[in-house]
Amino acid sequence: MQTGPREVVTPYRPIPLTVPEGMAANEFFNSAENLNDLAHNNGLLQSPEGLLLYRKALGHSNTFDTSIIYNTSQQILDPLGRPVRRSQLPAAVKNVWNRMNQVIVEYMLERYPDPDRHLLLAGEASLDATWPLTSPGVPSIRMLHNHFIAFDKPQLRDAPLADPNNPNLTDGGQHSLFQAHMRDVYRAFFAGLDLRILRPCAEGSCRITLTGYPQGLPSWEVPEGAAALKEVRFWQEYDIILKGFIDFYRTFFSQVSTRNAPLPRDIDFPELVEERLLFNNDFLKTAKMVRDRCIHDAKYANAIRWQPAFKQLIYRNDEGKLIVTISQNSIGNAITELLGVVVKRSPDADAYGRAEPALLEQLFEVRRRLVEADLGSGIATPYWPSS
Asked: CA–CA separation, 107 vs 372, rounded Å?
């Protein structure tokens, strides 16, 4: 078996939505009108906090694929003003969000217990891109949402190898500025975080053998497995990793933007930043390198995301262990590509129709468990009842 990223074809039923003349597609997808359609035609469950479980109309996988979105489209009409990462959630919303995540991951592990047969992942990507809405790579729905996906491994094994130079395969071993120029600084910074449940993985031990991904990224094993996801401390540490990443990212690009800039405001770990970043020559040397290039290369400067952009996920490795990882997301690639899976969506209503009954059966069971845990109420659509 040859190791390498795979490209899988996932059929979908074309969406009967008309984008108004003069609007870019991603501008329309960020509108309240589109999110209203998402809830009414694909919605499965809504919590009083505004968390919406829905079927993926343009899915990554027809084995199992669903998302939860923090649907603030009716309350915050400015797409750039909506919460786009878990660190921006109100405490009460985050409590429900974490419990919903735990229930769905537990279901996936129960339904797909064999790591040789299925690749499982759950995670989110940063949506706070600072590019104009019409720029390539800007997310199609600018609100916090999570992905829960299962891929059939035999299908992945039979899939053709993806082009390793595909820019969407951005990860720490290929294109990441952090990994290429300040790998030791990056790891030393994460090593200073207060983690008691999560344990750092030995280099290379967390890769999926089939794809060889993720590559070069800091990763942490969850020794207690699914049981840890029922502990508040696990989600606190999941947040610590995200907050640490954001501190690193903001500090680095503030130095790129302005030589010898002060600490960014409202960072979470100011002492760690000062000790391990702002007094580190490799860190500041890399910032100078990027700053100098930005001054002379307009296209390069325009491509930078000056605000934090990331992918963070929980996935199951080949040994059946749960792993947490986080990656700089500099291009806007799909979260599946962090694990070396490139999804090519194909409009094919018949093929999707053959997969849909088994997919919906699972989504209804997930909904039932969430309702039972008092995490929301079922939604009726033209295609299914509310329970």
From this structure: 13
DSSP state of 218: -
- Per-residue tokens: 284: 């500041």
- The count of residues in the chain is 387
Task: Give the span between the Cα atoms of 229 and 49, in whole angstroms.
Answer: 21
E strands present in 186-232: 199-200, 219-222
Compute mean pLDDT per 10 residues along the chain, 387 residues long, and list them: 91 84 76 79 95 92 96 83 89 96 98 98 78 56 88 96 78 66 91 96 88 89 96 97 95 96 95 96 96 93 81 95 86 77 93 96 98 97 92
Q: Please tell me the predicted confidence (pLDDT) of residue 142.
A: 76
Q: Which domain holds residue 139?
A: 1-167+331-387
SS3 327: strand
Residue 113, H or E segment = none
Q: Can you point out the beta strands (E) in the chain?
A: 6-12, 43-46, 51-55, 64-70, 118-125, 145-152, 199-200, 219-222, 310-316, 322-328, 341-347, 377-378
Q: Last residue of a domain, which of 310, 341, 363?
A: 310
The DSSP code for 138 is -
**Residues in CB range of 46: below 8 A, 6 or more apart:** 39, 52, 53, 71, 376, 377, 379
Rounded to whole angstroms, the Cα distance separating 336 from 249 reads 22
Q: Are residues 55 and 158 in the same domain?
A: yes
Q: Is residue 319 part of a domain?
A: no
